[in-house]
Amino acid sequence: MDSTTLAALDALQSDHLRALTAAYGRIAERHGLAAIVVHGGRPKSRSRFDDQSFALRSTPHFQHWLALNEPDCALIVAPGHTPTLVWPSGLDFWERPRAPLTTAFDRSLRVERPRAYAAGKDLLRDLAPTGAIAFVGEDPEAAADWGLDATAENPATLLRDLDALRVTKSAYERACLVEANRVAALGHEAVRRAFASGDASELELHLAFLGATAQDDPETPYKNIVAKGRNGAILHHIAYLREGKGEESLLLDAGATFQGYCSDITRTWVKGASAAASAFLGLVQGVEALQRDLCLGAVAGLRYEELHDESHRRVSTVLADVGLVRLSPDEICARGISRLFYPHGLGHSLGLQTHDVGCAIERPRGDNPFLRNTAVIAPGQAFTVEPGVYFIDQKLAELREGASAGAVSFALVEALGALGGVRIEDDLFVGPDGGAPENLTRAWLPVGGGAASS
Known about the structure:
- The protein is of the alpha+beta class.
- It has 2 domains: 3-165, Creatinase/prolidase N-terminal domain (Creatine Amidinohydrolase, Chain A, domain 1); 171-451, Creatinase/methionine aminopeptidase superfamily (Creatine Amidinohydrolase, Alpha-Beta Complex), CATH 3.90.230.
- 37% of the residues lie in helices and 13% in strands.
- The chain is built from 14 helices and 16 strands.
- It has helices at residues 3-30, 60-63, 104-108, 120-127, 140-145, 156-165, 171-197, 202-213, 275-296, 304-321, 329-334, 338-341, 393-401, 410-417, and strands spanning 33-39, 74-77, 84-86, 110-112, 132-136, 225-228, 249-254, 257-258, 261-262, 265-270, 382-385, 388-390, 421-423, 426-429, 438-439, 449-451.
- The chain is elongated and about 75 Å long.
């Protein structure tokens, strides 16, 4: 990132921190709190029998303030005071500390660098000598080190209010999501080219994505889903094959993080001259067209579950158009056949977590058990749109045993089953004026799938 862009991001983060300080102050007063402590986290041991730890990723509540993945960092937010960042300097010569990318926090926060985390207890008492204190974090020991007992840890009503803060993204957060999409696009293009030009294994494609995005595996927002051939029917396939087997399809679901914010992008590619590959290409093109339309229809004021319902009507049309089911689209949808080819939710909110918080307060209807977004679409929201069509053995068995089996072209199902499935996913952001959302993904990856060589 060049210095001009970084300076602009720094200015946006200053505004973000100013708004966050005010919002936390209001929430603290609403809950009768003298202070809220937000603890970043401590490295987790791989097991109780191992002295190795997983790489630390600070909690999303902490990263809402700043992307600092160092052990035992904490924020003390007390109404009427500048928020205090406690960032232990330590004396560890084993590892090099990771400095934050931006410097806005230096101007917006009071930064304290004690040698040990425990020294923060005195800072907390100076800021909140009396009154209730809440601790937001994963480590009870960290709360105890500052004299806070279990009753102070993660009050449910407080967490709900803090989660609600993350639904409406600031201009800084939008900029981070844009950059996360840009970086992920580099990896998607590298993998598409590698798939088109040879027979790289799933593991090799995974490594190509990491290399192109300059990410280490723990830095990705989720484990990359790299699925060739039949593995495309496994929705979260991460058991990468170590050798290529001449597969004609690739489903890549992979993202990047920037300042803690996640992108979540899926593309499906096909190559080869077989009849199955040609038919599968038609299926990919059908899903690509319906996905684009759904993105355009994701306007402010629409309940996301209604968009999910529309996705089933559109998938039903594709199933009829490609000849998989010999019924009208309305009949396919009414009989629930689309749910056997497309069993997951249309998408989810996006932000500091891949499946971000705040947009699934209400439970979905019983026929949409896996839908992770039930909110009314509103300005400032970020979410994914990711319809798909898959040939999942378990679901196909239900189809064969069901009343609609006679309407299904199982010969075509078997042929396309070797190519696994299709999913196309973009990240959307609804601007402050509402209306049609901004597609954060298509600016960098204009095509959602199709012929890998195109």
